[in-house]
Specification:
Length: about 130
């Protein structure tokens, strides 16, 4: 009985220590941009989007990569570790050359946070 109680106390102490180490938490101020309706142009048009995030966790946050749903969108992001309580950025550059109709683009943000993949969106209509 004493061994079981001692083992239980030891397991609880270890789990508490592991939780106390903390983890980063990726919190975006805005996860979607709605362009509304844009007039069609045959000229190349690039639009830049800034997704600001904050590390609301207690450990450094590292953005490993940002992948896009198509080749017409380019991504950039804060490469250095983002310390707890500070902000960083993910940028998307969307090229609209020759596109007509509904657009919906997705960025996949991979990090060391609890939720390892976060999706960001750009949507709109080109007439």
């Amino acid at each position: 009985m004493k061994k079981n109680l001692l083992l239980l106390i030891l397991l609880l102490a270890i789990s508490h220590l592991m939780m106390a180490q903390g983890k980063p938490v990726l919190s975006f101020e805005k996860q979607e941009y709605d362009l509304g309706v844009i007039k069609f142009t045959s000229k190349s048009k690039k639009i830049r989007f800034n997704y600001t995030f904050k590390n609301t966790g207690s450990a450094p946050l590292i953005i490993n990569s940002v992948q896009t749903s198509c080749g017409c969108t380019i991504s950039e992001w804060t490469k250095k570790p983002v310390q707890a309580g500070t902000k960083g950025h993910v940028y998307a550059i969307l090229e609209l050359k020759g596109k007509i109709g509904l657009i919906r683009k997705t960025l996949f943000v991979y990090s060391n946070a609890n939720k390892q993949v976060v999706q960001l969106y750009i949507k709109g209509m080109i007439e």
